[in-house]
Amino acid sequence: MSAAPAPVGGxxxxxxxxxxxxxxxxxxxxxxxxxAGLRVRTVLTAAGRQFVTPLSLQALxxxxxxxxxxxxxxxxxxxxxxxxxSGDLLVVCPATADIMARMAAGLxxxxxxxxxxxxxxxVLIAPAMNxxxxxxxxxxxxxxxxxxxxxxxxxPEIGLMACNETGPGRLAEPPAIAEAIFRHLAGPAAxxxxxxxxxxxxxxxxxxxxxxxxxxxxxxxxxxxxxxxxALAALGARVTLVSGPVDLPPPPGVTLHRVETARQMxxxxxxxxxxxxxxxxxxxxxxxxxxxATSKIKKTAGAPPPVLTLVPNPDILAxxxxxxxxxxxxxxxxxAETDTVGQxxxxxxxxxxxxxxxxxDVRPETxxxxxQENEIxxxxxxxxxxxxxxxxxxxxxxxAGRIAAxxxxxxxxxxxxx
Length: 418
Ligand code: C5P
Known about the structure:
The chain is α/β, with parallel strands linked by helices. The protein contains 14 helices and 22 strands. It has two domains: 12-189, Rossmann fold; 193-290 and 307-406, CoaB-like (Rossmann fold, 3-Layer(aba) Sandwich).
């Protein structure tokens, strides 16, 4: 999983270790990075020092550990501005709520925050904190700010934490962080980027009107599709998001088209073509009402209730997957199933003609439909790959990484109009 792509060896990572019970995992991360031939320089914050010792960092990296903004020795050897630019990538692991807040605010009151403000290199953070701290609107706002500025984020994962609470906040596993670092360092040449690609994403439910005030709908929150749109944009893709009615803010850097019905969604998708990638995450209603009433259907005492005649909606995924000059190079569908998930999803992949299927178990007891987490099986032409349960953001990040890896630099793009 964490084998380094060839080009990353010999590059330097500047690793900032902050305070937190997960700081010990930074030691395992260093082992993975140095094992892949990377040079690792470390910066230890005052809080980080409470959890790992400078000596262990020094022993693992074979390098001096930087701790103090005002150390004359350090300034003689290398000024903090030079240090901030001495690596190919700055990694903050674990990234606490505090360092995220200080990065978002642009503070520079210790060595770590100063380096993060002074650097001209890409930054990747691996957050770890208590679930309430993670969920707090302040942290989420800081996260959005950092993402919008191009900071890459790995994790956090969902699980039981040292504080005995369960939820998002646990540091991503070191191999996953190492993999993200390798991908960043390898750059577009190793398929880490979607720059120049156009991605079309559908998300949310559709509303199928019965009359001007009533409609048929489903419980889709749109969250997974919005996360995917954001993750693709973070990798440099131009993203068109065609969304049914949801209660979510537009993801930064994404062109959003709001629609109501499946027929409108299909039209908006066709308008967005050509594209390189199509991800159909919308929970499109299977039917619409044959004859939509133009005025509100009245309840008349004693009269029988109205009978709704339903007719099938267009299948957007099948439409986009159909062979033709504008077929995207990669079409990904979703399969929400309640039993024998993998089998049904594999059959759906064949039936719809798409390339990959993201299958998930939406039995009500899983809490997935409309919830924060997802547990998927990725079905491609090479087989079925079960992923561990993780939050929808982590699923999106990982899926976007897989999509980026699919596109080799020599693949022609969909000549999408900008
Ligand atoms: O057929 P089913 O609804 O199970 O297929 C799910 C997949 O097909 C999802 O990717 C969904 O977005 C897509 N779909 C679609 N248009 C439809 C029905 C489903 O794009 N009318």
